[in-house]
Amino acid sequence: MHWMPWFLALTALSCRPAPDRDDATRAREREEMVAQQIAARGVRDERTLAAMRAVPRHLFVPEEFASQAYADHPLPIGHGQTISQPYIVGFMTQALDLDGSETVLEVGTGSGYQAAVLAEIVPRVYSIEIVAPLAQQSAELLKDLGYTNVEVRAGDGYLGWPEAAPFDAIIVTAAAPRIPEPLKEQLGDGGRLVLPVGDAWQELVVVTRRGDRFEEKRVMDVRFVPMTGEVRH
After folding, report:
1. pTM of the model
2. Would the N or C end of the chain have less CB density within 10 A of its end CB?
């Protein structure tokens, strides 16, 4: 299995969305989303909550769905993919147990929203998307919004990003029929891998590496679009 020949990269430093593309109404909608949908359901990590207050979610959905961007449900983003429900984004981000110093791998860039949330918290995010047009669109949007600490690659996330490993945390935003071994191997010692596992029935699983051992914890039932590519072979 080889990487697809295209590669999209955004490099280094820090991030903050452009203020002229955001307004007080959207900021208020974000505050309500975080308070009512995320914090009220038990997400307590202050880094996660602050990141979700900061990222302009309405810019990561198609224009026709912008009015629903802060609603309590996923939305279509094209190519058969979705942007996850805000609560699920918050829950999975908290499950990574980030302290703000980590290098994180995301498998399934999608709209770029989860990558932006992570980029508000950590200094470096690598993100892989198997649908090339989505990878390009998300890379451009993240760059336009100033998220210069995110690097986006078009390719099959099953194999991870070996040359940037080891990772302190890995998040997978599509459901795999099994936990991909390459992703487990690219975790650093003490690193966390959070992903949905299953087909018709899916569970969110947190894998923690302890030396050569991998501890698995199943935390909740979820529903994600299926992970495609090598994982299906």
Report:
1. 0.90
2. C
